[in-house]
Amino acid sequence: MQRANRSIHESEGFRAHDFLTNRAGWKVKASKLTSNLKEGRTGWKKVITTLAAPTRLRVAVPEQLTLDFSLEAAFRSLAEQWEDETEHISNLKKAIAHPAYQQIIGMGKVAPDQVVSLLLRRLEETHNHWLVALHEITKQDPAPDGANFEEAVQAWLNWGRSRGRLT
Amino acid sequence: MDASPNREPRLEQKFPKLSGGGYSRESPRDPRYNCVALAVGDFNNFWQFMGPGKTKGYYWPPDLDDSLKGWIEVFRLHGYEISDSPDFESGIEKVAIYVDSDGETSHVAKQDVVLGKWVSKLGKGHDIVHDTLELLAGDEGDEYGRVEVVMQRKFQARRFPYEQDSRAQDA
Fold it and tell me: Is B58 helix (H, G, I), strand (E, B) or coil?
């Protein structure tokens, strides 16, 4: 039975790999998805193929990727985009209005535990301006009144460690 | 064109006029302070108006906002007055405030009182010295729009981002 399931996953994994590698702009590594499929962690539905045209084969998209996998990849992509595209903006309010930053805040309102942990890890690595996102998502601000930026960063990192959200 | 080794292709992509002008990168990236902080000589704070009840970790003088008028008042607090020229004058410190195409404040550069060049902290990134204000002006890439206001005061202290000793003393 296990062997039969593995065979099905491998087949679907191959199709997923083929699907992803043939589409530009899909930033997820197909090989990682394939390995996920092999381990049976995703909710990959039956792959339906239809012939849209005599010479063109269409493959169904995955119904849903695992949350951790897709959320972390999406977060990383958005965070890198924001850090790159707003590096030279002097007025932070404009940088925070950037769609990538707002998208991360939106993700945090849907999945606060995961996104706050990702934000804290990013903050620890880059010391970039993720304080506003953390504040917006958690509705908390552990920084003392009058703290400068670096002091506020340290306050947030300590806050994360004390709650087990940053190891 | 300046033949400084401290040129950076990535900066020239973001600010195309730099590629044909004289400039020099003078610091690593540093998100802890910004252009206003540099212009007032405070490298320990990120000077940013956030509004009441907003995220902590940023400094802005009370009762002022981030409008052009607010920025002008910030520099008035530091002894600057409106100037009619960005041209170099011995013994005079100048700052130039940029606004974007919507008229919103976008950047401030400070003039080096000895060399007459301009010093800018580019957002959360590098400090640079640039020959002219025009090199950071424009609306194509990451440029800051246009210089709207120049302010000046009598020379008080030389505090530039590339003077590591003075920064250490500030800290």
Answer: coil
Give the ipTM of the model, two decimals please. 0.85
Burial class (CB in 10 A: 0-12, 13-18, 19+), A17: middle
What are A8-48's pLDDT values in tens digits? 444 444 454 454 455 544 444 444 544 554 454 444 433 33
* B106 touches A at CB < 8 Å: yes
Query: Bridge partners of B96?
Result: B109, B150
Instruction: Output the CA–CA distances (angstroms, integers) from residue A119 to A30, B53, B145, in the order listed.
Output: 25, 21, 32
pLDDT on residue B170? 40
Separation in Å, CA of B59 to nearest CA in chain A: 7
Between CA A72 and CA B23 the distance in angstroms is 39
User: Does any CB of chain A come closer than 8 Å to the CB of residue B124?
Assistant: yes
| Per-residue pLDDT, A27 | 45
Other Cβ atoms within 10 Å of A52 Cβ, number: 9
Distance from CA of A21 to the nearest CA of B (A): 30
Tell me if B21 sits within 8 A of B143, measured CB to CB. no
What is the overall mean pLDDT for chain A? 76
Q: B27 vs chain A: nearest CA distance in angstroms?
A: 14
Chain A contact set for B45 (CB, 8 A): 148-149
Residue in the block written with tokens 């890890």? A121
> Considering CB atoms only, which of A87, A144, A151 is closest to B124?
A87
In this structure, of A47-51, B70-74, B85-89, the range with the lowest mean pLDDT score is A47-51
pTM over 0.80? The answer is: no
Q: Name the residue facing B48 among A92, A135, A150 (closest C-beta).
A: A92
Token representation of residue B139: 């609306």
Task: Please give the torsion angle defined by the CA atoms of residues A6, A11, A13 and A18, in that order, rounded to the nearest 10 degrees.
Answer: 170
What residues contact A119, with CB distance under 8 A and at least 6 apart? Answer: A104, A108, A130, A133, A134, A137
A81-104 pLDDT per residue, tens: 999 999 999 889 999 999 999 999
Q: Quick check: A149 and B104 CB within 8 A?
A: no
